[in-house]
Amino acid sequence: QVQLVESGGGLVQAGDSLRLSCAVSGRTFSSYALGWFRQAQGKEREFVAVISTSAIGITYYRDSVKGRFTISRDNAKRTVYLQMNSLKPEDTAVYYCAARLSPISAAYYVSSGQYPYWGQGTQVTVSS
After folding, report:
1. What is the DSSP letter of 86?
2. First-to-last CA distance in the chain?
3. Which phi and psi (to 5°) does residue 75 adopt?
4. 73-87: b or e for each residue (b if 16 or more CB lie within 10 Å)?
5. Which of 15, 44, 64, 66 has its CA 20 to 30 A from that of 86?
C-alpha cells in the first residue's frame, strides 16, 4: 500500500513563497516518478511538475510555473517537495502529489491518468 501525505499549503500574498512537501510510504520510493498537480475550483486537475527516478532527477514543468516553481526529491526522507516562489493569484488551487513506479529512470509523466497513487491534497491560496 502506497500512501502520500501532503503538507505546507496555506494563505499567502502575491509574490510570497511556499514549500509543499509530500511524504510517501512504501518500500520502493526511489523507483517512483513523482508529480505535482493542482485543481482550482471549478476547473479540471492540471499538471504542474514532475521529477523522474534518475540520479540526476530529470524535471519538467508546465509553462506557467517555469522559473518560479522547483520540484525536488529526497530519497532518504522519502519526500518530494515543490518550492513555489513569486506566487500569483492564479496559482490558487488544491495541490496534489502523485506517484507511480517508473522502470525507465529518465521517464517522466505529465498526465494524471498515468499516476495510480495520490495524496489528499493541500490548499494553496494566493491573495492579490
Report:
1. S
2. 40
3. -65, -30
4. beeeebbbbbebeeb
5. 44
Q: What is the tens place of the pLDDT at every residue in 92-128?
A: 999 999 999 988 877 889 999 999 999 999 999 999 9
**DSSP-H helix ranges across 1-128:** none
Closest CA to 58 of 107, 25, 101, 12: 107
- Residue 25 and residue 32: Cα distance in Å, rounded? 11
Give pLDDT tens digits for 38-59.
999 999 999 999 999 877 789 9
> What CA–CA distance (Å, rounded) separates 30 from 36?
17
What is the rounded distance in angstroms from the CA atom of residue 3 to the CA atom of residue 128?
34
**Rounded CA gap, 54 and 59, in Å?**
10
